[in-house]
Amino acid sequence: MVKVGVLGYGTVGSGVVEILEKNKDIIAKRVGQEISVKAVLDLRDFPGDPVEKVLVHDFDIVANDPEISIVVETMGGVHPAYEFVKTCLENGKSVCTSNKALVAAYGPELLALAEEKNINFLFEASVGGGIPIIRPLKTSLAPDEILEISGILNGTTNYILTEMTEKGSDFDSVLKDAQDKGYAEKDPTADVEGYDACRKIAILTSLAYGKQLDFEDIYTEGITRITDRDIAYAKKMGAKVKIFGSSKKVGDKVSAMVAPQLIYPEHPLYSVDGVFNAILVKGNMVGDVMFYGQGAGKLATASAVVSDVMDAAKHAGVNIITLWDAEKLDLVAAEDARNVFFVRVSGIKAQKSEKVKELFGNVKMVDAGYDDEFAFVTEEMSEGDYEKAAAQLDGVINKIRVDQTGLA
Amino acid sequence: MVKVGVLGYGTVGSGVVEILEKNKDIIAKRVGQEISVKAVLDLRDFPGDPVEKVLVHDFDIVANDPEISIVVETMGGVHPAYEFVKTCLENGKSVCTSNKALVAAYGPELLALAEEKNINFLFEASVGGGIPIIRPLKTSLAPDEILEISGILNGTTNYILTEMTEKGSDFDSVLKDAQDKGYAEKDPTADVEGYDACRKIAILTSLAYGKQLDFEDIYTEGITRITDRDIAYAKKMGAKVKIFGSSKKVGDKVSAMVAPQLIYPEHPLYSVDGVFNAILVKGNMVGDVMFYGQGAGKLATASAVVSDVMDAAKHAGVNIITLWDAEKLDLVAAEDARNVFFVRVSGIKAQKSEKVKELFGNVKMVDAGYDDEFAFVTEEMSEGDYEKAAAQLDGVINKIRVDQTGLA
């Protein structure tokens, strides 16, 4: 019998307790022994909820219970999650977390501590919710040098962009609708500004290359500047607007970014719509591999946490190797990253196209039928060169990077 | 230093040797020690190939080398692969194989032997080539009761159906083209008749439910009867024809089948085209999860084999639990499986539609503009009831099952 402590009885934490109960028999069979929840820590009370029997309000009860060998951390936030997790690891308990903020900030330290203690620090649910991605990256794709990762890593923004595309609605009204439906938070900043996706691509990239990529170092652009006109242009181009967290190997360095991207039907992520997430990984041997599923949600995310609990139970006293050093990953400077840009400009095309050619070279014009603006697509150029050229062109309204994946 | 023996230096076997050499450093770092190939068994000689230095023609050299702790089996075919693998396991060597025929036929026996010896029998590459699916099913999806699996499991047939759809060509000319390009074998029977997909869905289903599903017991229908007219109807319906290996839980039993399916854009596998494969798994907690990638090919498949070699190296002396008993899975009889059918009938609609309604009840007519035939879609009915009704209707040309996934 393996005994588990759960820190935080919110959406994911209560999902973990539910799965461990509902799928108890299957889980016991697959692990080789029963797993049961001995204590759930939360500040709140839950009158009438069966959790009452194991509910505690004092962290020390979990931390000092020698029977509890695995702790689930589903409180969210960096503090006191970090202090709690560290104490549990120091006390010899494996920890399974869904907390991307914690993992992005303290991954290497907590992994090193787990290794030292011959226990495990696992975080499948921190990226992609129920989508298996962390474990496949550590195991299935381990023979490969990772060349590129592109992910639709945030369900809220993918839902908003999908609705804008399908209904032609503007950002604000779709956001309001998403909030009403519970797909977006009251304060949607972390999602719509790309901060959530940023932490997730930081985790994936750190794992892929075995060194720390600080999320603060990743150029991050949200979707708040995407308008119905951008969407109309995208349709005209036979493309869709998605927001990607992405990284790729460039020589000995790695380039990483969170930003909206125009993608074509040939891109494996093109048909990933609504609240679904997906991650495309390119290995130097396996080629393109894609993982798709629910990137959030109580039971999907909790299922990923429970898969870690089962792994921790099967690896009692054995550290599962996870390469992620505290040493910093060598990052390509944001201005040196190379991209293709779709650019919208206010004014009359005939009057500005000479200037556009002078500044951007060989471009392809895109006409979506507007009289007061025009648009073009550049060839591949550095972010720095783009910025320099754009600064000299009057009336740039917006730019969106164009992902060429799948195009000949 | 871990020493590996490779049985069979064909496409996949030579890919394994290539990856272990090319990605040697990454692999050593991730496993914690170097992995090198000590012997490669093949009947042929390979003059000038570096493999010559380790090439052997006698199986006993591999089987009896105490330094070789992991054996890769990439010979294909059931015999003598089975005898060789069994001997290696009996001699205490873990075995990693890409051989679906072997796994489908002898999985439970070889797994039991590996468990008894505290070693491992691993077969990630036997299904979906480079796509991680076997390991995720055993680990990431372990908390879940598996409700349904649908897979595009064969690249040759997916390529043929994609070409027929995109170019409007007929089956025979596309098959010839696929053979010229090396996407189809000279004798394409195993692919186009669905036998290859059948072994793969047998393996996935056996793993999902922990009991043996004999591939001979799975109703299997290939794509040889699909014509350009079927494709034209599919387009008219806004659908595509794909061939799925699929299984699902029905009460306490499991229903399994290989057959062409009409699927709609809402289906997560709709945009999986060309030689790509993908597998959709529905868990009772995680919901829909999809895995996509190259289902065949030298390096993709070899990458999956090497991921198993790395797992075997990390689990020296520790058996990775794999539930797959020899006991037979309780299968729904083929005639009791329930499906929606698209049916084409020769003759004039006006003259036969009364009879169609009498036999099939509430159907939806589909008009693709042909004068000499018509078509309809049934409501859900059992395969047995469909056969009875179809037998009483003159001039049934073809039927294709309709997968309703994603439709409201």
Explain what this protein looks like in three dimensions.
2 copies of one chain form a homodimer. Chain A has 408 residues and is of the alpha/beta class. Chain A has 3 domains: 2-129 and 298-321, Rossmann fold (3-Layer(aba) Sandwich), CATH 3.40.50.720; 136-293, Dihydrodipicolinate Reductase, domain 2 (2-Layer Sandwich), CATH 3.30.360.10; 334-402, Alpha-Beta Plaits, CATH 3.30.70. Chain A is 36% helix and 26% strand. Chain A has 14 helices and 19 strands. Chain A has helices at residues 11-22, 24-31, 59-63, 81-90, 100-116, 134-138, 155-167, 171-181, 189-192, 195-209, 228-236, 298-314, 349-360, 383-391; strands at 2-7, 35-41, 55-56, 68-73, 94-97, 121-122, 146-152, 211-212, 219-220, 240-250, 253-263, 276-283, 287-294, 325-328, 338-346, 364-366, 373-377, 381-382, 396-402. At the A-B interface, helix 1, helix 2, strand 13 and helix 12 of A face helix 1, helix 2, strand 13 and helix 12 of B. Chains A, B: Its EC number is 1.1.1.3. Chains A, B: It catalyses: L-homoserine + NADP(+) = L-aspartate 4-semialdehyde + NADPH + H(+).
